[in-house]
Amino acid sequence: MAKQRTRFPSDMLVLDRDASVPMHRQLYEKLRADILAGHLKADTRLPPTRLMAEDLGVSRNTVITTYDTLLAEGYLESRSGSGTWVATLPADAVTARNAVGRTDAPSLSARGNRMVNQPRDRTIPGHIPFHPGYPEIKGFPFSTWARLLKRHTRYSQEDLYGYHWVTGHPRLKASIAEYLQASRGVDCDAEQVIVVNGTQAALDILARVLVDEGDVCWMEEPGYIGAQNALLSAGARLEPLRVGPAGWTLDDDTLLAPRLIFVTPSCQWPLGCVMRMEDRLRLLQVAENHDAWIVEDDYDSEYRFRGRPIPAMQGLDKAGRVIYMGTFAKTLFPSLRIGFIVVPPHLSEGFKRVASNTGHYPSLLLQAALADFLSEGYFATHLRRMRRLYSERQKVFVGLCQRQLGEWLSIEENDAGMQLVGRFLDDIDDETLWRAAQRQGVNFSPLSRLFFKNPPDHGAILGYAGIDLKAMREGIACLRAAFIEIEAKRAPT
Question: What is the C-alpha end-to-end distance of the chain, expressed in Å?
């Protein structure tokens, strides 16, 4: 017998339009609190996002963001064909909430509120990972990696177990500098390399060090959401440096003078285009004119399948304005959590103090193993194998998408990168498709989430690098089912 539906008490939601807390966060906190307190009982059906938005007088995206967050955290559940419902929580959840929940607790700082209100993009366990930037894991030489780790755990070397090297193990810094000089044209020595806990740690450090409250930062649009989050959390005012098929819009005279410019010139995130040499030189001149920093995120430039690799912009910089950053998350595996920053020589001493004070430095044991992995040639061998594999997978992936999804999606091969952007042929909301794909067990990133000022484009950012042919076929079939589902719901009855 079907469960009886509990009516949603829409009059219980009151949002404060004058509060500093964003509307989506107010709605999230109100719904979550009412679920935990038992005011919203299990098997209560929530109104559709459009009706909820109309009732509250807010944008539909506000409601969509709230529902998605509560769905991901398990407070709501989506039932195929019947909408969104309050989930059945463990019996002790409400008890625990009532025991520790306090309405008179101290408030967060302004920076804290900005940080907790930033969106996040993540992989979902158990879903086929079309998530962008996700590398091939099974093909990594874990036996070699285990041997290198064992080499350093066998002996209690003090330099691996103390506080000596907060900016990175000297051998790893030297290996990174040598690799960057040879493969990326980066002008640096080991003392300029700062080893950190991945890309987001690098962005957090750079935002803290380079940006003051209210500073204008040019941010690519669409662009990397992690950079958006770090800069906004630091109090920056983002101005959209628009990117499209023709490249970067550097002649937009409506942009305010920047303090910092964030770019991904070698493989733009997420579009995959490459900044032309004349535009690189022009951007360096813009930074010079405005006395601004440039942060160059070179996140997966190793994966170029046609033509010669494009040298990093940092190598063109003669004024010490470009700060270069990279990661091993895309070339090795994400949970390694090792990235690096290359700073101008005059900043290297100061960044030692910053690294020490923030604690953004990874295990020296892992760093020592990684230094061996680079210096003994295993890294270069792995990269060659992955380039061939990803090139082959991209061709297969595009072919399957064109055959199975061609009536809804346009997608083409690219010269570089680990993901592709599929453009919709019809007026499809990418968040709606994302939710349908979740129900089918597939995860991708909606393109619209990467816009912060201009009206967003809609599309699907699809990672193909980390999935084999079997999972690829299954995932594309599930995406096809998601397209069919939303098409059926839009069809007139």
Answer: 28
Separation of CA 28 from chain center? 22
Q: Which of 478, 322, 324, 303 is nearest to 394 (CA)?
A: 303
What DSSP element (H or E) covers 86?
Answer: strand 83-86
Whether 469 contacts 396, CB under 8 Å: yes
Q: How many helices (H) and strands (E) does the chain have?
A: 16, 16
Please tell me whether residue 312 adopts helix, strand or coil conformation: coil
Q: How many residues does the chain have?
A: 493
Residue 418 CB contacts under 8 Å (≥ 6 apart), including other chains: 132, 133, 134, 135, 300, 303, 330, 390, 463, 464, 465, 466
Query: What pTM was estimated for this model as a whole?
Result: 0.77
Give the span between the Cα atoms of 99 and 81, in whole angstroms.
37
pLDDT at 90: 74
| Residue 129 bridge partners (DSSP) | 443
Q: What are the structural domains of the chain? A: 10-106 (1.10.10.10), 128-138+381-490 (3.90.1150.10), 142-376 (3.40.640.10)
Distance CA 47, CA 42 (A): 15
**71-103 core/surface letters (b: 16 or more CB in 10 A; e: else):** beeebbebeeeeebbbbeeeeeeeeebeeeeee
Residue 64 parent element (H or E): helix 60-73
Integer CA distances (angstroms), 359 to 48, 167, 362, in order: 44, 10, 9
Sorted by sequence, the CB contacts under 8 Å of residue 227 that are 6+ apart come out as 203, 219, 262, 295, 297
At what angle are helices 225-233 and 198-210 packed, to 10 degrees? 40
Distant-in-sequence, close-in-space partners of 364: CB < 8 Å, separation ≥ 6: 159, 160, 161, 164, 165, 169
How far apart are alpha carbons 106 and 11 in whole angstroms? 28
pLDDT given for residue 481 in this prediction = 95
Tell me the per-residue pLDDT of 325-347, one tens digit each, with 9 for 90 and over: 999 999 999 889 999 999 999 99
Distance CA 455, CA 448 (A): 9
